[in-house]
Amino acid sequence: MVFITTQSLNAEILRQQAMARDIATEQAKISTGHKLSQPSDNPQDWVQISLVGRQQSINTAWQSNLKFADSRAAQATTNLEQINDLMTHVTELLVTAAGTGAGSPGREAVAKELEGIRTTISDLVNQTDYQGRPVFDDTNTVNIPVGAGLAIEATPTRQSVAENIIGTRSLDDILADAIAAIQSGDETARGNSLNDARTALDHVIVAQSLQGVRTQRIENIGKRIDDTALTLTERRSTLEDTDLTEVVTKLQNKLMTLEAAQIAFARISKQSLFDLF
User: Fold this and answer.
1) CA atoms within 13 Å, Cβ hemisphere of 224
2) 201 vs 193: CA distance, rounded Å
3) Nearest to 183 by CA among 106, 86, 90, 89
4) Are 65 and 145 in contact (CB under 8 A)?
5) Which of 56-60, 154-158, 268-272 has the lowest mean pLDDT?
6) Within a 13 Å sphere around the CA of 122, how many CA atoms are in the beta-carbon half?
7) What is the DSSP-derived secondary structure letter of residue 47?
């Protein structure tokens, strides 16, 4: 004899409802791509995901700072290259001036061109970006944080680029003396200015080399930060992402089980009292 009571029917209904909730949970894992929807699903993994997420946010800040440093370094590099080109041209003009006579239009043209170069170099040395930040730091370099306890300088100072090149004489002083030497027609002064210009050019080349070191360091740190970002992403994916093959298999099994239970329940619930004897 089979005994079917209201209690047993309610228990079966509750069991099927629980199975339906499990199925909805598995479907949510597929639709969201995440296997955890709340801390109680797996407290230990939830904590680890939170810690990884926090580190990802910090790493993103480092990446943003590094991009800023790289942008500043790139602009400084460009300006130094242009100053190099201009100072190279200065030496060429001083050599050319030796073949022009005192007071000649050619010599005056050289002086005018040197004046233009002097103005351009001054602009490059004192240039600011769209935010009003100088391309070359003033007096002290600005250290940009790019890691825990790690900060880097992206550019040289304006003073290191343009001042104290020969004794206390600045790049601007050297160019002013070169212009005066050309205008005066004094060959000794012109020869001295040529030597000074070559010394200034060497100074700029050294500044370029040091800037290259800064740029390379920024690139190396960027690779490390990118590697860290990839590692964190992979770790979070392992903890958080849904294993579709596993979840789909579980979902299919639960759907089949629920369907079978519903069919059996429907059949039993339709039976009369006489059908049960």
Assistant:
1) 12
2) 12
3) 106
4) yes
5) 268-272
6) 12
7) H
- Where does 105-186 have alpha helices with state H? 105-125, 158-162, 171-184
DSSP state of 165: S
Average pLDDT over residues 115-131: 94
Q: What are phi and psi of 143, to 5 degrees?
A: -85, 125
Cα distances from 260 to residues 14, 169, 266, 267, in angstroms, run 15, 94, 10, 11
Q: How far apart are CA 90 and CA 107, in angstroms?
A: 13
Both structure tokens of 2: 């089979």
Output DSSP code: residue 147.
Answer: E
Contact 204, 85 (CB under 8 A): no
Q: How far apart are CA 82 and CA 240, in angstroms?
A: 51
Is residue 244 scored above 60 in pLDDT?
A: no
The tokens for 198 are 């070559």
Q: Distance between CA 6 and CA 17 in Å, rounded?
A: 16
Q: How far is it, in rounded angstroms, from Cα 206 to Cα 84? A: 10
pTM confidence score: 0.74
CA atoms of 46 and 103, how far apart (whole Å): 84
- 178/228 Cα distance (integer angstroms): 53
Q: What are phi and psi of 154, to 5 degrees?
A: -100, -25
Q: Report which DSSP code applies to 40.
A: G
Q: Are 277 and 31 in contact (CB under 8 A)?
A: no
Query: Dihedrals φ, ψ of 126, to 5°?
Result: -105, 10
